[in-house]
Amino acid sequence: MSTSVLAGQTAVVVDGVDIDAVAVTVRACPGVDDLYSGRPGGPATYLPGRQVYGVRVDPHMLEVQVRARWAVPAVEVAAQIRHALRALAPARRVDVIIADLTDPAAPAMDRSAREVPITVSGQDQ
């Protein structure tokens, strides 16, 4: 692991990959809600005084684990992430784990009404 100071921030580089840049880049993908910590022992990078959950790097591969957005196909999410990380880890295989999905949007409810309509078998009661 090495560190360098860029624009007032300390970049943490593990095996030639800037871990914080990976995290920011993955989170910026349209199909990604966030990195995902998952179960104990899941992908994580341990840095001085903190961890970056959902990112693991080794000399040959970069692994990211994410919570994807609902209704975005998994292959599209993986393609977005791999394309975005190409410049940060050009010589590495990028493995993408979609460990969770966001909840689908709940139907909008008119909060001005005092009574909530109940629907049974497609008919309003």
Question: Would you kindly provide a brief summary of this structure?
Answer:
The chain is of the alpha+beta class and 125 residues long.
Count all strands and give the number: 11
Tell me the distance between the termini: 64 Å
Instruction: Give the low-confidence spans.
Output: 1-7
- Which bin fits the share of residues in helices? 10-25%
Q: Characterize the main sheet.
A: 4 strands, mixed
Question: How much beta, percentage-wise?
Answer: 35-45%
Helices and strands: which structural class?
alpha+beta
Give the number of helices.
2
Shape: globular
Average pLDDT figure: 83
- What is Rg? 20 Å
- H/E element string? EEEHEEEEEHEEE
Descriptive labels:
four-stranded mixed sheet, 39% strand, three-stranded antiparallel sheet, 11 strands, disordered N terminus, alpha+beta, 2 helices, 125 residues
What does it look like?
With 125 residues, the protein is α+β, with helices and mostly antiparallel strands. The protein is built from 2 helices and 11 strands, in the order E-E-E-H-E-E-E-E-E-H-E-E-E. Strands 4, 7, 8 and 9 form a 4-stranded mixed β-sheet that branches. A hairpin with a 2-residue loop joins strand 10 and strand 11 (123-124). The chain is globular. The termini are far apart. The model is unreliable at 1-7 (pLDDT under 50).
